[in-house]
Structure formats: structure tokens, C-alpha cells
Amino acid sequence: MGEGVLRAVPVAGRGDRPDEPLMRDLVGAALRRARLRQGRTLKDVADRAQVSLPYLSEIERGRKEPSSEVLAAVCRALGLHLVDLVGALHSDLSTPWVTSHRSTGRGGRSGRTEALLLAA
Predict the structure, then answer these.
(1) How many Cα atoms occupy the beta-carbon half-sphere of 91 within 13 Å?
(2) Which residue from 3, 27, 73, 83 has the highest number of Cβ atoms inside 10 Å of its Cβ?
(3) Is 74 within 8 Å of 59 (Cβ atoms)?
(4) Backbone φ, ψ for residue 106 (5° rounding)
(5) Of the candidates 63, 64, 93, 60, the residue with the CA atom closest to the CA atom of residue 77
(6) CA triplet 116, 118, 120: central angle to 5 degrees?
């Protein structure tokens, strides 16, 4: 990896929401998109992956973070390679998205700032 590619991201203060999405949300959304594109049911994919239907549903909704073994099984059940999933996540993270955060201007007043974040 070239020098200067990775940069530290400032940590949000207590009570602040993170500026970046959670991996479990991105993974779940990508798996759901793949399943729906194939016209498959949760039951079908859960059965083929040998995971419970409620657990797969929670993964797709970003409520559970699957182990690497479960993730591999779900990918296999969908006919995907892990690189396909990672590519989908890269695409999701590479598209511009808008986030809001609090900023303090002069005089100590708090205002709302909108920022457009772009991934390089």
C-alpha cells in the first residue's frame, strides 16, 4: 500500500453519532440487495447457508454482525465470492453521502453544518 493512503479519522465526542456508517449496516444491505436481485427468499438463502431465518434477517437489517464463517456461508448460498461482497461495500462507501454534525462558531453558538463527504 502506498504511503499516505490510510489516514486517521477523528473520533467523535461522547454523545455524537459517528460520521461513517457501521459495517454491519453496509454488509446487511449488500447481502439483501444480492438476494433480492436473485429473486430469492430469506428462507431459501438461510436454508442453503445453514443459518436460522431470523438470524439472516437480523444480519440483513444490520442488527447482527455475522462471524466470518457465517458471512462465507451466506455468500456461498448467494453464489458470491467474498471479493464480490467487498466490491459492493467499496461501491457503497465510494459514493458521495451527506452527513450532519454540530459546529461551534464564533461567540460559542452552536450551528448545524452540512458536509458532503467524498471517498477518493
Answers:
(1) 10
(2) 27
(3) yes
(4) -65, 145
(5) 60
(6) 165
User: Measured between alpha carbons, how far is 24 from 6 in angstroms, rounded to an integer?
Assistant: 21
Beta strands in the chain (DSSP E): 97-104, 110-117
The grid coordinates listed for 69 are: 464463517
Question: What pLDDT digit, counting tens, does each position of 13-40 carry?
Answer: 545 555 678 999 999 999 999 999 999 9
C-alpha cell at 64: 447482527
Per the CB < 8 A criterion, the answer to whether 60 and 28 are in contact is: yes
**Other C-beta atoms within 10 Å of 49: how many?**
21
Phi-psi region of 62 (alpha: psi -120 to 50; beta: other; left: phi over 0): left
Residue 88 to residue 23: CA distance in whole angstroms: 12
Instruction: Provide the grid cell at 105.
Output: 462558531
